[in-house]
Automatic annotation (TrEMBL), chains A, B, C:
Keyword Transferase: yes
Organism (species): Anabaena lutea FACHB-196
Protein name: Aspartate carbamoyltransferase
Functional description taken from the UniProt entry: Catalyzes the condensation of carbamoyl phosphate and aspartate to form carbamoyl aspartate and inorganic phosphate, the committed step in the de novo pyrimidine nucleotide biosynthesis pathway.
Matches recorded under NCBIfam families: asp_carb_tr (TIGR00670), PRK00856.1 (NF002032)
PROSITE patterns: CARBAMOYLTRANSFERASE
Keywords: Pyrimidine biosynthesis, Transferase
Length: 334, 334, 334
């Protein structure tokens, strides 16, 4: 186990993550990945602690991943789903969070359709001087840090499974393809990939990657490693990894897309298009996949190219690492 | 730990609670409150027992509180929500309860929109001669005993945190403000506060505290300690504690209330109105709060006056005590 | 504990169950029934394993039974309900299953409104070469093997509680009454009862037991022990056990039934009709019961005749046995 001290109390965004933090997560996730391969996959680290999954926006997949991660660490879990909650009774979100605080919750895993909600709750917890940690499980179009970290872990442990570290990505060309504009996954990935020294190429139709967005991104100090394209091909050329993003079908009805078929023709990933990339290119997708839209159905199931299943598995190990850090507040032997 | 023997098998109502029972709950909850402040907050008391939360009426808050309480005692929990259940398939409530009995449930925590359902289930269990205990988590406009007990614990442990006991409330003036007519919380609180020797002042508009209700209450032997008011001020004068009740917004559409704004003006608790009370008055609310209706928003967040967060925390300790009593059937060392 | 080796990896259907397998389940369920009568009802068998209840079709009753069974074996459980899942986001069922696989699920308990879904998922798991087991918790009108096994356990342990075994049913006359055509429970029961050497008499109105169905069944090698009737009486005559099936009320609106009252008059089980059976006849029903339709209300509650509660209890023990076999892959001391 690494011996770094972990100081971050809440995990809300990757925008200000340090290399040391990235590496602490990657190395600890690798340790947990090893635990998960044993017959008994539980460790007693968070015994007696309560992890509350406050999912104001429903997501079975992400909620299950956090729930398994928490249970592997022997925590007790509580699930809150907005639909059946007192949210419908007019209670504010901060009041809901404070209720779970008062019940003895140690870690709140929060998903909300609006950007900034996890941060607002974290600020309120800090203002109250309590030790509860907040983990952003996706807020609007802002960030989805655990997804960014599990993608980073998936890629870096593919390169060196024993010692995954952010430096392994330096100089790699990584394409991010799809609805960049509305994607919190893209944002979290951009932060971690830029920090790793990779070269990041965004590709999307203009409606999903508007000029102002490109300019905003280009204006940063990272402009020399971040590129935007309104066509797929230049992003794919010699790419080491291709990250596809989920396409919300409602984008089409909002007239941002002509048709799913045309989208697939122009920006969908297929075997033919992958020939532009490096020979051993790998494809990622945060799931759930619209088969035949973002990615062709056969490619998705081909373990030679697809890292999709590996991402889901990484998700549990990375979330165990995150819960471990903010739950125990220190890095010492598992 | 107290050495009293606990004989009550089901917890359905506070109407016939004895002082000894109130004090057993208060003292045991205090012990559990202490357990909850430790790093490892679990005790093995109910290991292997199954606590089923049968919530025919949804309530995330109360269900989570019971779920945490059960898990702290190492019980296994099952959640049943009417919406997704075979209730929609025409099964009767008693049949549902008997199914959970047959599966091996040890304690049933039951909420239902109709008064009397938990009692009917408890009677059926007794008729069948089984050891299952029923805990009423709110039935229609009848009672919500664990809420009454947690309010009692909140108040009495504020006065003496080491030894909370019902006698500490003797002679205190306590105002209960709001929709008395439809409130199961008010009914449970009236029983426990009268039993404690407190002076209870109910305040509400006539539509929410009709004459027949006042006469019904006034006709009891408790008439000398129970007072009803159609105005707020006489209830607040020199009050030690003010209990506000949740206002169901549907009361307004049922023409029982003119408008929320007018309600707040007449019966909402504000800093100004609190000046009528004792200087160190405290305010309670069972939650979820309609901010700016039953209570002004700033007052709710002011720890000098508000006990709302403390009530939620007390809820877990009190529910642990109740599950402990009916689950283990005896009072001996935790 | 029996010393047989268990080789079946998935439990999808009873059609090809061997006598040795039936008896292994019955004897192991009897051992677990004994565990359930102890004060501490848990065994550590599946500690650290994850049992995911993937209920694409909702069922609180069956899901709770599996959840209790898994928790008694110390497994961690995950509940997935289609309504709140990414199914609504267009993900395929196989992709959902593969996501739960990738998260580290050890056993998938699957219910779906379409026949064949659990089998399709099991085949996919085998194709992928992974060790995950699939347990069919009801698929369309196909099978509900754990229900068939719990009915077998209920009957055989009534005859010999210490050593329930399939041979005990040889020569018994068992009537299955109701909506045979649409019932997965009937199909699973037919397989197990025929295998036991019992004489099985199906009784239903022609719309719910059409000629082609009778001919299909009659054409098998079991024709000499399987009989179909369009009237109730010949099925009941001298019967040892009467299995009633749940009637879906939508059958009536689909014009397959005249009225519930007429159905009850012709095929509903009452005390009077039971006089045709053996004196100590017992009645079963998989639940939830439409009181006064499939069975008269007073009969359902009469422990002299009704095995309904006993079936629910058996369900937990039988499901523990099934999870134990496919979770541990061997039969050795609990």
């Amino acid at each position: 186990m690494p011996t770094t001290t972990w100081n971050r109390h809440h995990i809300l965004s990757l925008a200000d993550f340090t290399s040391a933090e990235y590496n602490a997560v990657l190395q600890t996730a690798a340790s947990f990945q090893e635990v998960l391969s044993r017959r008994t996959k539980k460790v007693p680290t968070l015994q007696g602690q309560v992890v509350a999954n406050l999912f104001f926006e429903p997501s079975t997949r992400t909620r299950s991943s956090f729930e398994i991660a928490a249970k592997r660490l022997s925590a007790d879990t509580l699930n809150f789903a907005a639909a059946t909650s007192s949210m419908t009774k007019g209670e504010t979100i901060l009041d809901t969070a404070k209720t779970y605080l008062a019940m003895g919750t140690d870690i709140m895993v929060i998903r909300h359709k609006d950007a900034g909600v996890p941060q607002a709750i974290a600020q309120e917890m800090d203002r109250l001087g309590v030790k509860v940690s907040v983990l952003n499980a996706g807020d609007g179009q802002h960030e989805h840090p655990s997804q960014g970290l599990l993608d980073l872990f998936t890629i870096s442990s593919l390169i060196d499974s024993a010692q995954p570290r952010i430096e392994l990505l330096a100089g790699k060309k990584i394409a991010i393809v799809g609805d960049i504009l509305h994607s919190r996954v893209a944002r979290s990935n951009i932060w971690s990939l830029i920090a790793s020294g990779a070269e990041v190429h965004l590709a999307a139709p203009p409606t999903l990657l508007p000029k102002f967005f490109a300019e905003y991104l280009g204006a940063t100090e990272n402009s020399q490693r971040l590129f935007t394209h309104w066509q797929l091909e230049p992003a794919l050329e010699n790419a080491d990894f291709v990250m596809t993003l989920r396409l919300q079908k409602e984008r089409m009805t909002a007239h941002l897309l002509p048709s799913l078929r045309e989208y697939h023709q122009l920006f969908g990933i297929t075997r033919t298009k992958l020939k532009l990339c490096k020979p051993n290119v790998k494809v990622l997708h945060p799931g759930p996949v619209n088969r035949g839209v973002e990615i062709s159905s056969d490619l998705m199931d081909d373990p030679e190219f697809s890292l999709i299943q590996s991402q889901v598995t990484s998700g549990v190990a990375v979330r165990m690492a995150l819960l471990y850090f903010i739950g125990s507040g220190k890095v010492s032997g598992i």
